[in-house]
Amino acid sequence: MSEADSNKPDDLVRAVEATLFASEDALTVESLAGHLGDAEPADIRAALRELAAFYEARGIQLVERGKRWHFQTAPDLAHLLRREREQVRRLSRAATEVLAIVAYHEPVSRAEIESIRGVQTSGGTLDVLMEAGWVRIAGRREVPGRPVIYATTPEFLQHFGLTSRRDLPGIDDLRAAGLLDPVDEAYDALVTPDEDVAEESAEETSGDHAA
Is residue 146 in a domain? Predict the structure, then answer.
């Protein structure tokens, strides 16, 4: 076998590459395996790793966002697509706040969003986020009234370059970057509610013992 033949990608790698290029949506390992005749997921993952390494230094890259794989423009070439990016609808402050709340607290109901923001949330704001493909209806809360609950989408992770929600910046990061103002302090408190509740519970317990 010649050196050229030994460096040639195998049929599965080529098939995965072709499938991802042809797909309009990011694909999971399972969906790729099913599409390619029930190939073994382990083999699909190996093919994806090989492709990701191959494209790492090229103009497009293979990346994983929310357990879904897709090709994207290399970050250092993003300026070439600035014209297309400018066509994306700019979010209002209200929509930005709602999107952040959904991302950090999902799944969350409209009433819970309003409780965190301290103001009523227009149904149109959630509609805008769903039309953008960043927020989806995730079911209903099993409480009286069974309110609709919302969560982010794989497209949200893809747009903001996040592998998963674990990559969202923490409150300290946001504050250090100057992205929090006094109006956002209520948002700050809601990100770590368990600590506040624990402190309050400890104080109440201490007071009971003292009495």
Answer: yes
What is the per-residue pLDDT across 46-97, written as a single tens digit (0 to 9) for each?
Answer: 999 999 999 988 888 898 888 889 888 887 877 666 554 444 456 788 888 8
Find out whether the peptide bond into 169 is cis, omega within 30 degrees of 0.
no
**One-letter-per-residue 3-state SS of 149-193:** EEEECHHHHHHCCCCCHHHCCCHHHHHHCCCCCHHHHHHHHHHCH
Answer whether 95's CB lies under 8 Å from 128's CB.
yes
The answer to whether residues 149 and 139 touch, using CB atoms and an 8 Å cutoff, is: yes
Reduce the DSSP state of residue 49 to 3 states and report it.
helix
Are both 104 and 188 inside the same structural domain?
A: yes
Instruction: Name the domain boundary from 79, 105, 128.
Output: 79
- Cα 122 from Cα 113, distance rounded (Å): 11
Evaluate if pTM is beyond 0.90.
no
Residue 173: its pLDDT value, please? Answer: 58
Question: Residue 97: which domain range?
Answer: 93-192
Give the Å distances, CA to CA, from 192 to 104, 107, 141, 188, 196.
10, 16, 21, 7, 7
- 200 within domain boundaries: no
Same domain, 104 and 160: yes
Domain endpoint, select from 48, 79, 110: 79
